[in-house]
Design goal:
The protein is mainly alpha-helical. The chain contains nine helices and no strands. It has two domains: 78 residues, Orthogonal Bundle (Rna Polymerase Sigma Factor, Chain: A); 88 residues, Arc Repressor Mutant, subunit A, CATH 1.10.10.10. It comes from Cohaesibacter marisflavi.
């Protein structure tokens, strides 16, 4: 078996210069060609038991190299070069635990609202109903619903310690993560 391994190794090494030239013709860049030859040699070495002694080693290696090149080309069509991590950072999301804690805080604050305010804000804010539809459901005037929703929003802002600008956004720790994604 040792002689077979040495024979395989010698024959494969003798083809390397031609293999590299072929890889250069496909890739056009020395570093990519070297990587392609290395991948080819690794595949050939791991599959040497499928090589039939006495057949054309050169043709077998060239076939492996060509197939590897086309596989890499197909794969690169589905991948994005992101060595700096810029694209990856733009995909980052807030950790789920922050959202869970925010939702828990919101539910607690919502439960502290008077029943008529909670009902009005849930109908208009969460259910997406118009003020008119909510007024019909609550059997009151549209102005009353608007007032209840306004008072409920103000009370929620106070309970949740939200800024009064009406722009609801991530807290400071989450905002730093979000702003990092847009810096680049």
């Amino acid at each position: 078996m040792q002689n077979a391994d040495n024979s395989f190794k010698r024959e494969m090494l003798s083809v390397l210069p031609s293999l590299r030239a072929f890889a250069m013709s496909l890739c056009g860049k020395h570093d990519r060609a070297d990587d392609l030859v290395q991948d080819t040699v690794m595949k050939a070495w791991s599959k040497q038991d499928s090589f039939e002694a006495g057949t054309n080693m050169r043709a077998w290696l060239f076939t492996i190299l060509r197939n590897e090149f086309y596989s890499q080309m197909r794969k690169s069509g589905r991948e994005i070069q992101d060595s700096e991590g810029t694209f990856t950072e733009s995909l980052s999301i807030q950790p789920a635990q922050h959202g869970q804690m925010d939702l828990q805080d919101f539910r607690e604050a919502l439960s502290k609202l008077p029943d008529n305010q909670r009902e009005a804000i849930v109908l208009v804010g969460a259910s997406g109903m118009s003020y008119e539809e909510a007024a019909v459901i609550c059997d009151c005037k549209v102005g009353t619903i608007k007032s209840r929703v306004n008072r409920a929003r103000a009370h929620l802002q106070e309970l949740l310690s939200l800024e009064e600008d009406g722009n609801y956004h991530p807290d400071n720790s989450a905002a730093s993560v979000v702003s990092q994604a847009f810096v680049s």
